[in-house]
Here is the input.
Amino acid sequence: MMKRKGQALVEFVLILPVLLFLLFIMIDFARVFSFQNRLETKAVDAISLFRKGKTKEEIVGILKEEQEDLTLAITYSKQKAILELQEEVSFLTPGLNLVLKTPYVIKVKRVVPYES
Here is the structure.
C-alpha cells in the first residue's frame, strides 16, 4: 500500500515542472495577444488623433499617458502617412527567451491617406 503512494508522489514531482512550464507558456502567449490587441486599439486612437491634425508629439503624449513603453513613428510619402506603433513584452517563462527574442517586440502598422 505504501509503495503506491510513494510512486504517485514521485510521478507527480516528475511531471510538475513540465506542467508549470506549459502553464507559464500559455500565460505568456495570452499576454502577447493581449498586448497586440491593446496596440491595435492604440493604432485606431492614433489614426483618429492624426486625422484631427495633431502633431506626432501630441499623439505620443496622449498615448503614453496610459502606456509608458510605447513607440510611435510617422513617415510621410506621396499621398499617405504610415503610422507604426511598437511595444516590447518581456516573458515570464524561464527559458522562453532562448526560443524567442526577449524583449519580444509587437508592431502595428497602419497606412492613412494624407494630403499635405
